[in-house]
Write a structure and sequence with these properties.
Helix content: 25-40%
Strand content: 25-35%
Strand order of the largest sheet: 1-2-3
Distance between the termini: 43 Å
Largest sheet: 3 strands, mixed
Number of strands: 5
Shape: globular
Radius of gyration: 16 Å
Order of helices and strands: EEHEHHEE
Structural class: alpha+beta
Length: 135
């Protein structure tokens, strides 16, 4: 029996202002590791690293939980946890837009990390050309 991509569950609380700018996020990620860890910890770690996507989140806490189950162990695929982390952040971006009666693309544009900014990993972004993305 071969493993599959890790199923994930994300639970989150997000604080944002009336313009849709995210002020804080508290995220819990759960992955179905199966009956052995295999690469589950590394997959979880990558999902956690992607939990802000490309958005400005000044206050971010992410906790990861690898859940042992009675199912076959899961393994890493090309995204190695990144897609799971990105899908969860995009879910809360969509909910912010819905709550504020805005288009999700507008919330994405407003909260996107711009040029000459530092990421949460202290990586300086010097060339960012996202203004035309999606057009």
């Amino acid at each position: 029996i071969s493993g599959w991509r890790h199923p994930f569950l994300g639970r989150y609380k997000v604080a944002f202002d009336s313009n849709g700018m995210v002020q804080a996020a508290d995220v819990d990620l759960y992955n179905n590791a199966g009956w052995t860890m295999d690469l589950s910890f590394s997959v979880m770690e990558r999902a956690m690293f992607h939990s802000d996507n490309s958005y400005k989140v000044p206050n971010l806490r992410v906790k990861g939980h690898c859940c042992k189950t009675n199912l076959p162990s899961n393994t890493a695929f090309r995204g190695f946890g990144g897609p799971q982390g990105l899908m969860i952040v995009e879910a809360w971006i969509e909910k912010i837009a819905q709550k504020l009666n805005l288009e999700p693309e507008e919330v994405r544009r407003r909260t996107c990390t711009g040029g000459h900014a530092d990421t949460i990993y202290n990586q300086r972004l010097t060339i960012v050309q996202l203004s035309n993305a999606g057009q």
